[in-house]
Amino acid sequence: MLDRSIEELESGSLARIASAESLADLEAVRVDALGRKGTLAQVSKDLGRLAPDERARVGKLLNTAKQRLEDAMEARKRQFEEAALRARLYAEWIDLTLPAPGSRRGHLHPVTRIQRELEELFVSLGFAVLDGPEVETEYHNFDALNIPPEHPARDAQDTFWLDGGHLLRTHTSPVQVRSMERLGPPLRMIAPGRVFRNESVDASHEHTFYQLEGMMVDREVSVAHMLYFMKALLTDIFQREAAVRLRPGYFPFVEPGFELDIQCLICGGPGCPVCKQSGWVELMPCGLVHPNVLRMSGIDPEEWNGFAFGLGLTRLAMMRYGIDDIRYLQSGDLRFLEQF
Ligand code: 2NL
Questions:
Q1: Is the minimum distance from the CB of 144 to ligand 1 under 6 angstroms?
Q2: Is 316 helix (H, G, I), strand (E, B) or coil?
Q3: If you average pLDDT over residues 272-298, what whole number do you get?
């Protein structure tokens, strides 16, 4: 009678183990068959009612059944674990022979590109490319450029003032002042860089923009020398010879001072919205370095003189690429930047 129960229990449980789909199924079988209140435990209780030698025989049967069930469960559990491992290995399979995806290449900002091009040109003409601090002294940004405290040119440049008599440079001219002080004549240098004005920002005004200024100090430098270099610069930028004209212009740090205009590249002369119907576009302020400026930086204006010019790199980039809003340039918007 007990033999039958043990046999049925064993075969039934083995069948359940074989068809178990998960560790939870297996656990259920274990509780039902081998648990404290499981079937085997029930049968063990009945052992007490048997004669001693019969009890030993059935007890042995019981132990064997228990051992077989445990072995079967252990084997099934290992099958589950192997299947899980196989599934994981399959899911995480990587073909190491595939070519690498490669990194996404960036590129230079349009303003940086123009800056680099001009640096290359001026280096080829024997100019040094020099740098200076963006936080400047009032002296280097204004006084040394013949702009004393009461000069109206200070009002025209809305300046970000800092503590301790410092400011954010409003042009790259202080780099030239420092170069004259440190290197002395003869000197051929350009100073490209970031400058700051306390402007209300709109489509054509930014508080931060890029400039390139240049100067040459030597003996008997003339406006003709200046024009030669200005034309070399324009031909390089626009990749063709641009017609230019010189108008008088006032800047405290040069004398005489000029506005150099180029013939409008959009309409070629007759007039259009870009040149405001004049046929000419204002491009570069320039002139011969004012004797006061030379003297203040320790250069004798009786022996040396020079020319200097300014060029808005940001404005140039806008002209070259047809960008109609200056704010895009510093927006960091990839949809804009990826067009270049
Ligand atoms: C500008 C810049 C100009 C210069 C800049 C210069 C620098 C020194 C001496 C003399 Cl240290 N000149 N730079 C010269 C002419 C024009 O234009 O932002 N103009 C509105």
A1: no
A2: helix
A3: 90
pLDDT in tens, 8-31: 888 888 888 888 888 888 888 888
pTM of structure: 0.70
Report the distance separating Cα 148 and Cα 159, nearest Å: 15
The total number of residues shown for the chain amounts to 340
Q: Is 310 in the pocket of ligand 1 (CB under 6 A)?
A: yes
65-97 pLDDT, tens digit each = 888 888 989 989 998 899 999 999 999 988 889
Evaluate whether 199 touches 206 at the Cβ level (below 8 Å).
Answer: yes
Distance, CA 215 to ligand 1 centroid (Å)? Answer: 9
275 bridge partner residues:
none
**H or E stretch at 91:** helix 52-91
Per-residue DSSP letters for 55-76? HHHHHHHHHHHHHHHHHHHHHH
Q: Provide CB contacts within 8 A for 111, sequence distance 6+.
A: 210, 313, 314, 317, 329
Ligand 1 atom 2: the closest Cα is on which residue? Answer: 310
